[in-house]
Write a structure and sequence with these properties.
Blueprint: H1 7-13, E1 18-24, E2 34-38, E3 41-47, E4 53-57, E5 71-72, E6 76-78, E7 85-87, E8 92-94, E9 111-112, E10 114-117, E11 120-125, E12 147-156, H2 160-167, E13 192-197, E14 200-205, E15 215-221, E16 224-231, E17 243-253, E18 256-266, H3 269-299, H4 316-346
Antiparallel strand pairs: 1-11, 2-3, 3-4, 4-9, 5-6, 6-7, 7-8, 10-11, 12-18, 13-14, 14-15, 15-16, 16-17, 17-18
Helix pairs in contact: 1-4
Length: about 350
């Protein structure tokens, strides 16, 4: 967390005390060590002999060598520099070069609580490394039960904040995506309102529903931040009603982010089979075209975009979210500043 010096760092790299998706589950294969940068942290991901995923700092507690260059030993990993072995809890299990030294048996490697849901690996980034995480609550469409989903994963050369702006801007669907098979109908002018919910707020058109990209919802459920929206589907897209997207974005660094877009429908039994067949054979390619339009727009955005905006009524949701994020970043930065003298004294 050395890079999180102030409020601006927290805003650009992601708030703490939050769950963030890191990558699709299939990216972390058995017997391998995977290195990732997420939310300003350099991470090592690996699976033990039972298949349980572990997320740890990619830094050996001995000399700070990259553990991702080390050896996978089943239920341990070994640093390739001097052979120091660590378990999934971050405890030093063995120091082959100096058996019985004080480092053995000590929890010396930062380890992030991790879970897998809906084909993705999530980790808890706590402000206090020793505190228990808030239980992870994923939105209903990716929690299973009567819902089915496909995960679309992207990495874009743009701030994650630009993707949040895009998701809370339903009006762009009628313009940027006007040639999409689902977003070509409806009016190109609208009035919007914000409706508060128990977990966030809904930003919606007041004069159109179920026609285009007509609303989006910001959720913060148990520390996981996400956006949910509906896209109406024609009858030719099979059973299941509207097409729901659950989106999460995670900063890689200040200028790159990972995007997770779960495409969901409320289907089961034969309807689920029909939906999955249609999606893979007809619909998925069209959805990638829409995402590509968003990527091009986000990556081309100038660095000073926020400083030179002239916003209007359609932008009230993104303004509200920006203020919420900045206020929380300011609060967390102040709390961090208060903790630093205590930590220094403890050393």
């Amino acid at each position: 967390m050395t890079r999180l010096r102030n409020e601006e760092d927290l805003l650009l790299l992601g708030l703490r005390d939050r769950w963030y998706p890191l990558c699709p589950s299939h990216r972390v294969r058995a017997g391998e060590l995977t290195r990732l940068e997420r939310a300003g942290e350099e991470l090592l991901l690996w699976r033990d002999s039972s298949g349980v995923v572990h997320v740890q700092e990619d830094r050996c507690p001995h000399r700070s060598a990259r553990l991702s260059l080390g050896v996978h030993m089943g239920d341990r990993i070994a640093c390739n520099y001097h052979g120091v072995q660590l378990d999934g809890d971050g405890v030093v299990a063995s120091v082959p070069g100096s058996p019985g030294c004080a480092l053995e048996g000590r929890k010396a490697l930062r380890t992030f609580p991790a879970q897998e849901h809906a084909g993705a690996i999530f980790a808890w980034f706590g402000a206090d490394e020793s505190a228990e995480p808030t239980p992870l609550q994923v939105p209903a469409p990716i929690a299973g039960a009567e819902w089915d989903d496909f995960l679309c994963y992207v990495e874009w050369d743009a701030s994650y904040l630009l993707s949040l702006d895009n998701l809370l801007d339903p009006m762009h669907g009628a313009f940027l995506h006007r040639n999409s098979h689902t977003m070509y109908t409806g009016k190109r002018e609208a009035a919007f309102q914000i409706r508060d919910t128990d977990t966030g707020f809904v930003f919606e058109k007041t004069d159109q529903r179920g026609v285009n990209f007509d609303w989006s919802e910001w959720l913060d459920t148990g520390g996981l931040q996400s956006v949910t929206l509906d896209i109406p589907y024609p009858d030719t897209a099979g059973p299941g009603g509207p097409f729901t997207i659950v989106a999460c974005v995670t900063a890689i660094n200040e200028r790159q982010h990972a995007g997770f877009f779960w495409r969901c429908r409320k289907v089961s039994g034969w309807q689920r089979d029909s939906w999955r067949f249609l999606y893979k054979n007809r619909i998925e390619a069209r959805h990638w075209q829409v995402l590509e339009q968003d990527r091009v727009m986000a990556e081309a955005m100038p660095d000073d975009a926020w400083a030179r905006e002239n916003l209007y009524q359609h932008d009230i949701a993104l303004v509200r979210l920006r203020r919420m994020l900045r206020a929380e970043a300011k609060r967390q930065a102040a709390a961090r500043a208060e903790r630093e003298p205590v930590r220094a004294a403890a050393r």
